[in-house]
Specification:
alpha/beta; five-stranded parallel beta sheet; five-stranded antiparallel beta sheet
Length: 385
């Protein structure tokens, strides 16, 4: 598969789409799926600063030979003004034209993320997000009629802002700081909504151990070996996937707030470990000699989600995200500065420069995939008292 993210400046932030790419790379490291980011602000269904829609589609979508295209448009189409029937008619016809141009490609239509009329007074009666709701309704109805996948990126983020407004008003304003472009935390929830629309599984791994019978009760999406049950409990584990890299240490505190305000971890990031039959007490869990946490026997019996902690697996996944963002930046440089900005300059060095940066991007893509591959880890559970 070759997935194109097509849209305006929100896609051009290269966050929700990079998070989706990282999820796929870490959850399915053996799959051959490539991603291209083709967001450009301030685009509408008619095109924008990168040219009219036909130029945008030909150069930034069709030229990449996509098998899947996710369209994220609408934020700019309403003009940030009260609902205008003429604007809306132009949007609906323009949107249908884009879908028609992509015949033979699996299309996902994205209901645009919210305009923040929650933490700040609306600019006019009803607010701009209410206008976007009418655009969303069209997109959702088009998906039903054309049998397309649709993803609601508005409700999830708006609900997060409302919850944050009740508990942390100052933080709530930072979720969509300019009312249009979401922060990292908002993009995480947008990625969640898109991944759910695509049927993404929650499972990273599931391991259950009975320390009394000294048996492995469950081992989903992983291989558990060398189980030892003596004074300490130990084993090795070769997982088929990595957890999604959540920035629990986000200095803005927005990412942890987003995780607490949503079902992201339950829906997309379940890395379960259960240990039954331990003597009552407190236990230290270490992975590759790195302390993961201290847990009671009851907590281990109920099960913990390792994706909530800083583990070697989480560190590996963060490296994948780091490389994903870096590769997306290199692609952005090649496309926007070498291909688009120099298009009319007729520089003889331009083709060679583009090819060189393409090779650099391919190198980074190879590093992404290598960084996501399985590594064996050693687990030790030691009773403290």
């Amino acid at each position: 598969d070759r997935v194109i993210f097509y849209g305006d400046s929100i896609t051009d932030q290269r966050l929700y789409n990079s998070y989706v790419e990282t999820y796929v790379l870490t959850r399915f490291p053996k799959l051959d799926i490539a991603f291209v980011h083709s967001g450009l602000g301030p685009d509408t269904v008619q095109g924008g600063g990168g040219g009219p829609i036909e130029v945008r589609l030909d150069r930034d979508v069709v030229a990449h030979r996509p098998t899947t295209v996710a369209i994220n448009l609408g934020m700019n189409d309403g003009g940030y003004e009260p609902f205008d029937p003429a604007r809306f008619a132009a949007f609906t016809s323009g949107y249908e034209h884009i879908v028609d141009r992509l015949q033979g490609v699996r299309v996902t239509v994205i209901e645009p993320s919210p305009y923040d009329d929650i933490t700040r007074p609306p600019s006019f009666d009803g607010g701009y997000n209410a206008v976007l709701q009418r655009y969303r309704a069209f997109i959702r109805d088009l998906a039903r009629k054309r049998e397309l996948v649709s993803a609601d990126l508005n409700t999830t983020v708006a609900d997060f802002v409302r919850k944050a407004q009740q508990t942390s008003p100052d933080l709530a304003k930072q979720i969509i700081p300019d009312r249009v472009h979401p922060s990292e935390a908002g993009h995480l929830l947008m990625a969640e909504a898109l991944l759910k629309a695509w049927g993404a599984p929650a499972l990273v791994t599931n391991v259950a151990i009975d320390s009394v019978s000294k048996t492995i009760v469950a081992s989903e999406n992983t291989s558990v070996r060398a189980l030892q049950c003596s004074a300490d409990l130990s084993w090795t584990q070769l997982d088929a996937a990595l957890p999604f890299p959540v920035a629990w240490d986000d200095p803005s505190h927005l990412v942890p707030l987003a995780m607490r305000s949503s079902d992201f971890m339950e829906s997309l990031n379940s890395e379960s470990l259960k240990i039954a039959g331990l003597q009552p007490g407190r236990y230290l869990l270490a992975i590759d000699g790195m302390m993961t946490g201290i847990f009671t026997s009851d907590e281990l019996a109920r099960g913990i989600n390792l994706a909530n902690y800083t583990t070697p697996m989480m560190k590996q996944a963060r490296n994948v995200l780091y490389l994903t963002l870096k590769r997306a930046g290199v692609h952005h440089f090649r496309w926007r500065f070498l291909q688009m900005s120099l298009a009319d300059d007729r520089l003889e060095e331009q083709p060679a420069a583009i090819r060189a940066v393409e090779r650099l991007e391919q190198n980074l893509e190879s590093r992404q995939r290598a960084a996501a591959q399985a590594v064996t880890h050693s687990y030790v559970v030691k009773r403290l008292f």
